[in-house]
Amino acid sequence: MIAKGWYWFGFIGSVSLIAVAYFYFQKQLGLDPCPLCMFQRGALAGVAAFCFLGILFNPGKVFSKVIAFGATLFSALGLAIAGRQVWLQHLPEDKVPECGPDLAFMLDVFPLTQVISTVFQGSGECAEVQWRLMTFSMPEWMAFIFLVMTIICLRLLFKRERNYFSGALGR
After folding, report:
1. 81 Cα distance to chain centroid
2. Distant-in-sequence, close-in-space partners of 108: CB < 8 Å, separation ≥ 6
3. Rounded to an integer, what distance in angstroms lies between the CA atom of residue 51 and that of residue 7?
4. Distance from C-alpha of 122 to C-alpha of 34, rounded to nearest angstrom
5. Of 117, 113, 67, 77, which Cα lies nearest the Cα of 97?
6. 8 A C-beta contact, residue 141 and residue 78
7. Domain 2-158 carries which CATH code?
8. Cα separation, 154 vs 170, whole angstroms
9. Confidence (pLDDT) at 171
10. pTM of the model
11. C-alpha–C-alpha distance, residues 98 and 80, integer Å
């Protein structure tokens, strides 16, 4: 039952972050997301999807581990993507890669494997800091959020299930 509360927390948190990114940062402030930002949104959607499965099906021991593994995978992926963007933002200006084509164009023209490879190499637009809160850029905040998500998901993945009724029935 405790895991279901974490599933709700993960689902609402992930969907809320995607909504804030789209409606506030993109639509209200006019900050267009770079390719790495879009991949981070995809990682959040993956976490939300696995959490939603946990809410929807109220899984037993084995399926709950599968759900926790999927959520862990997507949160760790998001952490890696956000970490890559933080690294790009801290490069000296002369080491920042050139800006490339936007994500929509790359998805239309190139095969998916090449798009993923190109995005992870980074570009100048991914290194640009467009917003800060308490001196931290958006990718730095997302790296922290994904780190917390990964820790929670790992805890759920390796949490020992207890059967409270196994000893009580024999007495």
Report:
1. 8
2. none
3. 5
4. 10
5. 117
6. no
7. 1.20.1550.10
8. 34
9. 46
10. 0.76
11. 21
Q: Hey, what amino acid is at 137?
A: S
Q: What was the pLDDT predicted at 164?
A: 42
Helices 2-19 & 138-158, crossing angle to 10 degrees?
160
Q: Pull the structure tokens for residue 85.
A: 């963007």
Specify the pLDDT at position 118: 67
Report the pLDDT value the prediction gives residue 169, as an integer from 0 to 100.
47
**What is each CA distance from 36 to 97, 120, 128, 146, 154, in whole angstroms?**
14, 7, 12, 14, 24
Token reading at 169: 């029935």
Strand residues in the chain grouped as ranges (E): 132-133, 136-137
Q: Where are the domains of the chain?
A: 2-158
34-77 pLDDT, tens digit each: 888 888 999 999 999 999 998 888 777 788 889 999 999 999 99
Low-confidence residues of the chain: pLDDT under 50: 1, 163-171
Q: Which residue has the tokens 């994500």?
A: 103
What type of residue is 159? K
pLDDT (0 to 100) of residue 36: 85
